[in-house]
Specification:
Layout: H1 5-11, E1 18-23, H2 29-36, E2 40-47, H3 50-63, E3 69-73, E4 87-93, H4 95-104, H5 106-109, E5 114-119, H6 123-132, E6 135-145, E7 148-157, H7 165-170, H8 172-177, H9 180-200, H10 206-226
Parallel strand pairs: 1-2, 1-4, 2-3, 4-5
Antiparallel strand pairs: 5-7, 6-7
Organism: Extibacter muris
InterPro entries: SAM-dependent_MTases_sf, TrmK
GO molecular function: tRNA (adenine(22)-N1)-methyltransferase activity
Length: 230
């Protein structure tokens, strides 16, 4: 089974031999891929919605993996018992929802070895939540697919060193790696924000001045991040 580039990046952070709970599994492609490639030994494919879960069941049956992948309707981690899985995947959902799932499922994540997360928004808040709640971000990756950029992170239990605002926003591990895809993203964001700043120069409204200040702060963080590549 072929995964999208985004989902391959998620799968690439899963430790071999894992027992996986894929939260918000949608079509069930991720657990099927992890089992068929030998990365995971067993998996739970869960989703809050019946429709996607029905599709996942069909795909799992067709793949011949029904004996190794269990489907389960679940609101986040609520139908997952502590100790059932050592790895949680949450990919393709908003950062606020990722944080809610983690916050509501502390009893479950407390028994897990790793969290593989690919939030679609509010990535800074997700990183901040993790390092503020007993997790350390051990690995990160980033891919571009169809003009969109997707950061992925692996979190394990442990304490983290302090993060700067730029590291929270763009990823300490990605910056340490001088990740080429992150550099592409930073350069694109710099161009976009410089264009906005130029357009705002001609306006005297209070809101425009406030927005100009916000843009200038964002550009300073981008320059700080780009400094890691020099």
């Amino acid at each position: 089974m072929e995964l999208s580039k985004r989902l391959r990046a998620v799968a690439g952070l899963v430790t071999e031999g894992a027992s996986v709970a894929d939260i918000g599994t949608d079509h069930g492609y991720m657990p099927i891929y992890l089992i068929t490639t030998g990365t995971a030994r067993k998996a739970i494919a869960s989703d809050i919605n019946a429709g996607p879960l029905d599709r996942a069941r069909i795909h799992i049956q067709e793949s011949g993996m029904a004996g190794r992948i269990e489907t389960r309707r679940s609101d986040g981690l609520k139908a997952i018992r502590p100790g059932e899985a050592d790895t949680m995947i949450a990919a393709g959902m908003g950062g606020g929802l990722v944080i809610k799932i983690l916050d509501d499922g502390k009893a479950v994540t407390g028994q897990m070895k790793e969290l593989i997360l690919q939030p679609q928004s509010e990535v800074k808040k997700v990183r901040g939540y993790l390092i503020g709640h007993g997790f350390s971000i051990s690995e990160e990756d980033m891919v571009e697919e169809e003009g969109k950029y997707y950061p992925v992170m692996k979190a394990v239990h442990g304490t983290s060193s302090a993060y700067t605002d730029a590291e929270l926003l763009y990823g300490k591990r990605l910056l340490q790696q001088r990740h080429p895809v992150l550099k592409e993203y930073l350069l694109r964001e710099k161009r976009i924000k410089n264009d906005i700043a130029v357009r705002l120069d001609g306006s005297r409204s209070v809101r425009s001045r406030e927005r100009k200040n916000e843009i200038e702060k964002e550009l300073r963080l981008i320059e700080e991040a780009l400094g890691c590549y020099r």
